[in-house]
């Protein structure tokens, strides 16, 4: 097991004890404007805020580098598929950094930035997409469940887990990530309802990246997703998902709310998927260049770079260090990916059932004989 140790040393929360978070006229929480200025109402300690910003920026920058490298590996035929998280780094890093390392996360399938923050390394992140394993990593050491591709199923898994930790008397909070499209699944509504009824210690974190493959959010729902919380009895928050500090502050607040026994919360982070749905998708078929351009101007990394420059929180040395670290991560991603060997397919028969029944043994033997019938 290799770790990136992103969360070491652990970040400290500069928002503890602050009085309310600024909202824009749209109604969402935003601490930093798209051009990188801190809202004047932010009354957090500036030194702590600077340290946190640098940590979060590092996590976002490394995630983008890994994402870019994985995309290139797919284009070069080394991965079967990759789902980019470009554009969603603030939503993911801001939220995962705001919860305790032992708070249990149930991701969807695009949460590479959150996984990397938790210490899940490139080989583990890529093996599933190279098609050499059914899933990537052992969830236990990371408190980070494997990816779920069945939309919204993870909300039910998370709710079940949260009811379990609640009954164990543990103070763990369970966080689950899902998309705007997944929010349309019945499973999502069932999970939120049963979590609310039981005051489960949970955060339902929706990354509304505007698209579910080629279906826009406007075709999914008439009411903003965060407003569903009121119907179920969840605390509801809406946040600028491209503002990493706002995401961090909001997620910290709802996590402590849930940890204190006040019940679950839903957070809708409005963000944008800058790549295609996956490497098999061509987004130019359904969205305009102008839309992409408008969201590029809200790039979550550029916003933090502008903020750090304005506040004097970064210098050439800091940025150079991160650049070197990102390059090293990209090299490691490529190295580890190319070293991932395909397992012997015949082994798959041995891992289905503890006691292999006669029929399965016969099928295995037939497969092995068939394979042996090929000339090299
Ligand atoms: C139950 C189910 N139905 C359909 C699909 C096919 N599918 C895979 S991803 C996707 C869109 C999901 O969109 P969203 O929830 O917004 O997540 P995003 O990909 O934008 O991160 C669909 C329809 C699936 N994986 N599972
Ligand atoms: Mg989506």
TrEMBL record:
Q: What is stated as this protein's family in its record?
A: Belongs to the BCKDHA family.
Which Gene3D superfamilies would you find in this protein's record? Answer: 3.40.50.970
Q: Membrane-spanning residues where?
A: none
**Which intervals hold domain Dehydrogenase E1 component?**
58-329
Q: Among its keywords, does the record have Oxidoreductase?
A: yes
UniProt keyword annotation of Oxidoreductase present: yes
Instruction: Give me the reactions it catalyses.
Output: N(6)-[(R)-lipoyl]-L-lysyl-[protein] + 3-methyl-2-oxobutanoate + H(+) = N(6)-[(R)-S(8)-2-methylpropanoyldihydrolipoyl]-L-lysyl-[protein] + CO2
At the top level, the lineage of the source is: Bacteria
SUPFAM superfamilies the UniProt entry points to = Thiamin diphosphate-binding fold (THDP-binding)
Per UniProt, which keywords does this protein have? Oxidoreductase, Pyruvate, Thiamine pyrophosphate
**Polar residues bias (residue ranges):** 13-26
Q: What does this protein do?
A: The branched-chain alpha-keto dehydrogenase complex catalyzes the overall conversion of alpha-keto acids to acyl-CoA and CO(2). It contains multiple copies of three enzymatic components: branched-chain alpha-keto acid decarboxylase (E1), lipoamide acyltransferase (E2) and lipoamide dehydrogenase (E3).
Q: What is the protein's given name?
A: 2-oxoisovalerate dehydrogenase subunit alpha
Q: What is its EC number?
A: 1.2.4.4
**Main EC class the enzyme belongs to:** oxidoreductase
* Region (Disordered), start-end ranges: 1-26
Q: Which cofactors must be present for this protein to function?
A: thiamine diphosphate
InterPro entries, alphabetically?
A: Alpha-ketoacid_DH_E1_comp (IPR050771), DH_E1 (IPR001017), THDP-binding (IPR029061)
């Amino acid at each position: 097991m290799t770790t990136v140790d992103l969360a070491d040393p652990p970040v400290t929360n500069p928002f503890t004890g602050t009085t309310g978070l600024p909202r824009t006229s749209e109604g969402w929480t935003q601490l930093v404007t798209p051009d990188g200025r801190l809202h004047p109402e932010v009354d957090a300690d500036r030194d702590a805020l600077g340290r946190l910003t640098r940590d979060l920026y590092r996590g976002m920058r490394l995630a983008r580098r890994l994402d870019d490298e994985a995309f290139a590996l797919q284009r070069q035929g080394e991965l079967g598929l990759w789902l980019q998280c470009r554009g969603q780094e603030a939503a993911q890093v801001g939220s995962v950094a705001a919860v305790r390392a032992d708070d249990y996360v149930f991701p969807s399938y695009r949460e590479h930035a959150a996984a990397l923050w938790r210490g899940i390394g490139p080989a583990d992140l890529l093996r599933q997409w190279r098609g050499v394993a059914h899933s990537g990593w052992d969830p236990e050491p990371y408190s980070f469940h494997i990816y779920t591709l069945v939309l919204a199923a993870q909300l039910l898994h998370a709710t079940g887990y949260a009811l379990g930790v609640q009954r164990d008397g543990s103070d763990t909070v369970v966080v689950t990530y899902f998309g705007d499209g997944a929010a349309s699944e019945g499973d999502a509504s069932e999970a939120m309802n049963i979590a609310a009824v039981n005051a489960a210690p949970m955060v339902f974190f929706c990354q509304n990246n505007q698209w579910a493959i080629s279906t826009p959010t406007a075709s999914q729902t008439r009411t903003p997703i965060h407003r569903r919380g009121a119907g179920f009895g969840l605390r509801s928050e809406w946040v600028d998902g491209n503002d990493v500090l706002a995401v961090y502050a909001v997620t910290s607040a709802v996590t402590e709310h849930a940890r204190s026994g006040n019940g679950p919360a839903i957070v809708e982070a409005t963000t944008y998927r800058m790549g295609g749905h996956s490497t098999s998708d061509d987004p130019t078929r359904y969205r305009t260049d102008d839309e992409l351009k408008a969201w590029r101007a809200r790039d979550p990394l550029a916003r933090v770079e502008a903020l750090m420059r304005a506040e004097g929180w970064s210098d050439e040395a800091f940025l150079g260090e991160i650049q070197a670290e990102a390059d090293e991560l990209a090299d490691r991603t490529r190295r580890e990916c190319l070293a991932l060997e395909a397992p012997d397919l015949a082994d798959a028969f041995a891992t289905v059932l503890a006691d292999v029944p006669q029929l399965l043994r016969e099928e295995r033997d037939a497969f092995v004989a068939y394979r042996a019938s090929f000339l090299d």
